[in-house]
């Protein structure tokens, strides 16, 4: 079977870029990305392609190439489901904030709503693709909903987790390390469905990089990949604290161990803590699943990755307070960067949010500059924590348009995101306009310690 019409439910950080690349590489397939969020769809359709709702290097060019040709964005979910022979579900699966599994389990209500809507609308056989990250065995629940509430049509369910990282989504999608497809390998229809999806990716991915497995392995591999990646960051961050008290340098340690081909050099960058919408959510979910099977040692093992990360964020903020003579009350502290990593406007679970919150509790005055994050988003992130009233947040935090404005008259500057532009700021001028002693805290090991110390800064970097 050749897929001619694809629908993707969810036009977010995954659905948008993934479908844009599928459409770019498969001109004969019509791809419609749908969402209930009208504002988001309007932004995807903005005539000025630079206004699309997600900032990713190279994405606007891909959208410009395919949009209106075979890539469409719409709020008419029913129509897109009806027309499609393959439906990707790419809706959010956040950590539950209520009831059983609160704070741990993935909230699957959006997934279930999609399944029920597909079951109601579908009039011909369809392949359903789990693109969202889901707990292992979710496909079983989807199948039961689809088969019991549908119009008697046949649904094949595939798992096709997405491994793109934000900030490099376009290159990750163009050249994936692997594409993982899980399906029912034991039935003819299952194998046909798998092949149909393999054929879509085969437009640009070599067969060796397309891996097929059973559904459960595929679902669990996604959680496992994120757990392993986050574990490396927590491991090096644990070492960063030990480096600071022993005069070892975490960058040198990372280089030394990374040259061991069994360890490898990637994901060994000590930082103020990992953020992003995936790592914490997916590990918490893994911990919850392990506990639900009574596997307490497995659960405790992985939970430690999160506890270490929480500690890293807290200790960075505490270091600022301690260094500033044990009080930041009424002091201006500039935060450079708010996004959870460079080259994205996504702020979900960003370390900056937690460091800011800690410093606000110490009555600091925070000034933020981020090249891609809006004031509205920064305030929303803080309000969401619910630590203090919205009025107080607005009184204590200011968002400005340049790094220089953020740092002027500040007692301290903290680099929270590794944006390239921070490396080439006029640090001499910034030093001149700061209060003295001028403290600089590098949460990303982005800056040149020697050069900045020579300029007069009191310089601290994570891990040395
Ligand atoms: P997102 O919040 O950016 O996008 C999800 C979109 O789904 C939202 O726009 C929302 O309005 C829409 N939606 C929810 N319910 C809907 C419904 N019933 N009908 C239509 N639209 C609906 O989320 P995201 O970052 O794109 O993540 C989506 C999934 O992909 C999650 O499971 C996540 O874990 C996974 N994932 C994310 C990344 C990443 O880097 N962000 C990477 C790999 C996997
Ligand atoms: C991650 C996974 O990498 C990706 O495969 C998955 O699909 C989604 O989750 P993402 O969260 O977008 O991607 O970014 P990633 O590059 O993994 O960074 C996550 C966080 O870890 C960021 O805050 C980053 O700054 C931090 N990090 C990463 C470090 O602190 N040190 C490192 O060495 C690497």
From TrEMBL:
Tell me what reaction this enzyme catalyses.
Answer: UDP-alpha-D-glucose + 2 NAD(+) + H2O = UDP-alpha-D-glucuronate + 2 NADH + 3 H(+)
Q: What is its EC number?
A: 1.1.1.22
Give the matching InterPro entries. Answer: 6-PGluconate_DH-like_C_sf, NAD(P)-bd_dom_sf, UDP-Glc/GDP-Man, UDP-Glc/GDP-Man_DH_C, UDP-Glc/GDP-Man_DH_C_sf, UDP-Glc/GDP-Man_DH_dimer, UDP-Glc/GDP-Man_DH_N, UDPglc_DH_euk
| Pfam families named among the record's database cross-references | UDPG_MGDP_dh (PF00984), UDPG_MGDP_dh_C (PF03720), UDPG_MGDP_dh_N (PF03721)
Which residues does UniProt mark as catalytic? 278 (nucleophile)
Q: Identify the residues that the record assigns to the UDP-glucose/GDP-mannose dehydrogenase C-terminal domain, covering every copy.
A: 334-449
What residues bind NAD(+), as annotated?
10-15, 35, 40, 91-95, 132-133, 166, 278-281, 348
The yes or no answer to whether the keyword NAD is present is yes
Cite the binding residues for substrate. Answer: 162-166, 222-226, 262, 269-275, 340-341, 444
Keywords of this entry: NAD, Oxidoreductase
Query: What SMART domains would the database entry show?
Result: UDPG_MGDP_dh_C (SM00984)
Q: In which pathway does it act?
A: Nucleotide-sugar biosynthesis; UDP-alpha-D-glucuronate biosynthesis; UDP-alpha-D-glucuronate from UDP-alpha-D-glucose: step 1/1
Q: Which GO terms describe its molecular function?
A: NAD binding; UDP-glucose 6-dehydrogenase activity
Q: Which GO terms describe its biological process?
A: glycosaminoglycan biosynthetic process; UDP-glucuronate biosynthetic process
The job of this chain, per UniProt, is described as: Catalyzes the conversion of UDP-glucose into UDP-glucuronate, one of the precursors of teichuronic acid.
Q: Which family does it belong to?
A: Belongs to the UDP-glucose/GDP-mannose dehydrogenase family.
Q: What is this protein called?
A: UDP-glucose 6-dehydrogenase
């Amino acid at each position: 079977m050749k897929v001619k019409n694809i629908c993707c439910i969810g036009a977010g950080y995954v659905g948008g870029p993934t479908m844009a690349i599928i459409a770019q590489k498969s001109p004969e397939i019509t791809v419609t990305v749908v969402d209930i969020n009208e504002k988001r769809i309007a932004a995807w359709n903005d005539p000025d392609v630079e206004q699309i709702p997600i900032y990713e290097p190279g994405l606007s060019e891909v959208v410009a190439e395919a949009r209106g040709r075979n890539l469409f964005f719409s709020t008419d979910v029913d129509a897109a489901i009806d027309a499609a022979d393959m439906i990707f579900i790419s809706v959010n699966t956040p950590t539950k904030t209520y009831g059983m599994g609160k704070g741990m389990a993935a909230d699957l209500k959006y997934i279930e709503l999609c399944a029920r809507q597909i079951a109601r609308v579908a009039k011909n056989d369809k392949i359903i693709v789990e693109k969202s990250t889901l707990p292992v065995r979710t496909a079983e629940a989807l199948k039961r909903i689809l088969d019991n509430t549908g119009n008697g049509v046949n649904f094949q369910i595939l798992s096709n987790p997405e491994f793109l990282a934000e900030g490099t989504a376009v290159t990750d999608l163009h050249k994936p390390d692997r594409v993982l497809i899980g399906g029912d390998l034991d039935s003819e229809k299952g194998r046909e469905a798998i092949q149909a999806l393999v054929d879509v990716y085969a437009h640009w991915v070599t067969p060796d990089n397309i891996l097929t497995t059973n559904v459960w392995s595929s679902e669990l591999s996604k959680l496992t990949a994120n757990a392993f990646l986050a574990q490396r960051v927590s491991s090096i961050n644990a070492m960063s604290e030990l480096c600071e008290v022993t005069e070892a340098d975490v960058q040198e340690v990372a280089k030394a161990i990374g040259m061991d081909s069994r360890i490898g050099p990637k994901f060994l960058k000590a930082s103020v803590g990992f953020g992003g919408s995936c790592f914490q959510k997916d590990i918490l979910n893994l911990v919850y699943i392990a506990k639900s099977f009574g596997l307490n040692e497995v659960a405790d093992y992985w939970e430690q990755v999160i506890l270490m990360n929480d500690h890293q964020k807290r200790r960075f903020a505490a270091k600022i307070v301690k260094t500033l003579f044990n009080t930041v009350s009424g002091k201006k502290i500039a935060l450079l960067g708010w996004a959870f990593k460079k080259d994205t406007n996504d702020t979900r679970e960003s370390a900056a949010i937690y460091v800011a919150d800690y410093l606000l509790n110490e009555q600091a005055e925070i000034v933020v500059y981020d090249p891609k994050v809006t004031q509205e988003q920064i305030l929303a992130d803080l309000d969401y924590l619910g630590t203090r009233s919205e009025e107080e947040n607005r009184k204590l935090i200011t968002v400005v348009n340049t790094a220089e404005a953020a740092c002027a008259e500040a007692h301290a500057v903290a680099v929270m995101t590794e944006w390239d532009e921070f490396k080439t700021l006029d640090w001499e001028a910034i030093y001149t306009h700061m209060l003295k002693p001028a403290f600089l805290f590098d949460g990303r090991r982005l800056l040149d310690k020697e050069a900045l110390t020579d300029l007069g800064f009191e310089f601290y970097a994570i891990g040395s």
